[in-house]
Amino acid sequence: MYVTYAEQNRVFQSLGVWTTTFSSVTGLAEPEQVRVVLISDGVLQSLNVQPAAGRWLLAEYQIGTTRPLPSIFLATTRIMLGYGYW
Fold it and tell me: For 50-72, how does the pLDDT look when each residue is reduced to its tens digit (9 = 90+)?
């Protein structure tokens, strides 16, 4: 449904969706379960959050095949770390 709204949007400057979940982070120590917020392009712009470094998330980043349809959260190649996690 979001894709339809985003494609037909003629009123808002930006439009986005988000959801929360958990994921495991592995490294040198034991795996750690962390809270993850999956966002589409447009969320940060809608909330007027400027990137501290780098650039906005782009619509092209949502293209991929890692999650079943109808999920719009398909890409897994881009991450954003919060200050607390960093």
Answer: 888 877 777 776 665 445 444 55
At residue 32's C-alpha, the angle toward residues 28 and 35, to 5°, is: 140
- Residue 47's closest CA among 82, 76, 12, 6? 12
68 token code pair: 């079943």
Other Cβ atoms less than 10 A from the Cβ of 38: the count is 17
15-37 as b/e, with b when 16 or more CB fall inside 10 Å?
A: bbbeeeeeeeeeeeeeeeeeeee
Q: How far apart, in whole angstroms, are the C-alpha atoms of residue 83 and residue 86?
A: 5
Note the maximum CA span of the chain. 49
